[in-house]
Design goal:
The strands form 2 sheets. A two-stranded parallel ribbon has the order 1-2. Strands 3-4 form a two-stranded parallel ribbon. The two termini are about 15 Å apart. The protein contains 6 helices and 4 strands; from the N terminus they run βαβααβααβα. It has one domain: Rossmann fold, CATH 3.40.50. It is mainly alpha-helical and about 150 residues long. It binds 4-nitrophenyl phosphate. The site of 4-nitrophenyl phosphate (4NP) has 10 residues, from loops.
């Protein structure tokens, strides 16, 4: 799961995917990163932690990190939260085979096709709640089609 700062959207998306994987007994490695290293080493934003906690998901132990080249090799699927993240990922990916691993998180046939997860950093609690809803729906679909 990849966003800009790795303190709001992608940690929430990581928590959401881990939730559905655990619920369905699917053993996968889930991680998140930022295209930037602005918040390297920081825990997720307090509002992201509180929002997920209110839905029973604990993301407080995550730490922000910047995307690394080896992520393109290690992970089978790489999900971008918005079009800017997607463009950055596509230009950082030097191996053309790995390019096919990259897509928008909300790029599924039903409902949210080609939709971005809006950045809630300068927003309100409501915006974090919207990120929760979008990432939960998208990750439920990922696990359902695993
Ligand atoms: P994220 O949100 O990409 O969802 O983690 C942001 C966090 C920090 C900044 C921008 C977006 N920032 O500019 O510091």
């Amino acid at each position: 799961m990849v966003c800009l700062g790795n303190i709001c959207r992608s940690p929430m998306a990581q928590g959401a995917l881990e939730y559905w994987a655990a619920k369905n007994d699917i053993d996968i490695e889930v991680d998140s990163a930022g295209t930037s290293g602005y918040h390297r080493g920081e825990a997720p934003d307090d509002r992201a932690v509180a929002c997920m906690k209110s839905h029973g998901i604990d993301i407080s132990s995550q730490k922000s990190r910047q995307l690394k080249q080896e992520d393109f090799e290690i992970f089978d699927r790489i999900y971008a939260m918005d079009r800017s993240n997607l463009k950055d990922l596509q230009s950082l990916c030097t191996n053309s085979q790995n390019l096919s691993k990259i897509s928008l998180l909300l790029n599924q046939e039903d409902g949210y096709h080609d939709v971005i997860v809006p950045d809630p950093y300068y927003g309100s609690i409501k915006d974090f709640e919207r990120v929760y809803e979008m990432t939960m729906k998208a990750t439920e679909r990922i696990i359902a089609s695993w």
